[in-house]
C-alpha cells in the first residue's frame, strides 16, 4: 500500500531533515520501518549524501535506473574496497572474487560456476525435491513451530553442504559461520570484537583446509572445494583469500535463499488472494518465485567505491567516495515497477528486479536459488499443505542481509 507523507509517524523518516537522514540504521530494518525512509529519498533526493554515520560518509542510490547504471559500470565503481557499507579493518580483510575486477574476477568466478551450470542443476533438482519432501513430512502438525529454523535454514544448509561436499552431520557449522561472517561486531553481543569474529572464522578456515588437503590429492570432482583446489586460477590462493571465497560462497548460498523461503511464506499469508491465485494455477509458481525474491530483496544493498569522479543522477561523486546501491529501494521504484509496494505473483515483467544485482558480479547462484524456491512451492502446493503464520516475524538487525530470525507457523493436520 502506498503511504503518503502525512501518514508518516512524527518520529520517523519523513520529518528528519534530509541532511541528517541515515538509512543505514539497523533498527529501521529490524522494526520494518525502513520503507518510509526510502520512499522519501526516492521522491526528494534519489542520490543522497549522508555526511555522518557509524560507517562514515556515504552516498545512497535509491532509484532503479541509477543503481543499474552504477552496478554495470565496474570501471568507475569498484568493488575492490568492499561490497558492504562496513569498512572492514585492514588486518581483518579477506580477498574474494566479488571484490575483484577483470581478469582475475572472471577466472575465479568461472572456476566455481560449473556447480550452478544447467547440467548440474538438472541433477540437483531431484535431490532438492526429495529433501523438501522429507523436511515437509517431518514438520509438526497442529503445533506452532519456527519456519526459519525447521525449513528455511534446514533446506539451504543441506544444499550448501552438498555444494561443498561438506560432512553432512556438521552442516549447521555452515549456518553458524555464515551468521558470524555477515554480522558486524557489536558490544554486548556474542561477537563483540573483530578479533572474536576472526577467531571463529579461523576455525572455518581450518575445517575447510582439511577438506582442501584431502581433495587436492584426489581426482577432480564437482564440488566447490575440489573445483578450487584443481584450478590454476585458485590453486595458489593465500589462506585469507581461500577464507574470503569460502565466506562469499557460504553467505551467498545461505542467507539469501533462506530469507526468500521465509519471506515467501510471510507474503502469501499477508496477501491471501495471491496464494489463492497460486493454488488455483500452480503454473504461476516460477513467476511467484521471482516476485518473492523481488519483494524480499534478501541482500538490501551492495557497496562500491568511486574509482574516478563522475556524475550520477545529477550529483557530483568524487573518486574515493563510498556509494551504496540500495536494491531494496530500487525494487520498490514505481517509475519502473508498477504498484511496486504490493506483492503480485503474476505481475508483468516479474523478472525485472534488482535482487540479484547487475553487471559482472550479478549473482552466480540465482538459478539455483530459484530452483530451490520453485521446488519448495511445488511440493507445498502438491501436498495441499496449509501453513498458517501464527505470529509476528522477528527480523534481523542488519542493513545488509534483509531477513528473519523467526516466523511462527502452524500446519493443520
Ligand atoms: C552475488 C543476491 C543466491 C552465490 C550476488 C549479488 C547479489 C546476490 C545481490 C551481488 C550482485 C552485484 O554485486 O551486482 C542473491 C540472492 C539470492 C542469491 C537474492 C537468493 C535469492 C545465491 C546462491 C549462491 C550465490 C544460492 C551460491 C550457490 C553468489 C556469488 C556471488 C553472488 C558467488 C558473487 C558473484 C561475483 O562476484 O561474480 N548474489 N544471491 N548466490 N552470489 Fe548470490
Report on this structure:
This protein is of the alpha+beta class. The protein has one domain: Orthogonal Bundle (Cytochrome p450), CATH 1.10.630. The chain is built from 14 helices and twelve strands. The strands form four sheets. A five-stranded mixed sheet has the order 1-2-8-5-3. A hairpin with an 8-residue loop joins β10 (394-395) and β11 (404-406). α5 runs parallel beside α14 (366-382). It is globular. The protein starts with 25 loop residues before the first helix and ends with a strand. 41% of the residues are buried. The model is unreliable at 1-11 (pLDDT under 50). The protein binds protoporphyrin IX containing FE. Protoporphyrin IX containing FE (HEM) binds next to α10 and α14. This is Cytochrome P450. It holds the Pfam family p450. Its cofactor is heme.
List keywords for this structure.
413 residues, alpha+beta, disordered N terminus, binds protoporphyrin IX containing FE, Cytochrome p450, 14 helices
List the helices and strands and how they pair.
Elements: H1 26-30, H2 34-44, E1 47-50, E2 58-61, H3 64-71, E3 77-78, H4 104-112, H5 118-137, E4 145-146, H6 147-164, H7 172-182, H8 194-216, H9 224-229, H10 239-270, H11 272-280, H12 285-296, E5 301-306, E6 310-312, E7 315-317, E8 322-326, H13 327-330, H14 366-382, E9 387-389, E10 394-395, E11 404-406, E12 408-411
This protein binds protoporphyrin IX containing FE (HEM).
CATH topology: Cytochrome p450
Give average pLDDT, whole number.
Answer: 94
What is the count of DSSP helices, taking H or I runs of 4+ residues?
A: 14
Poorly predicted regions are: 1-11
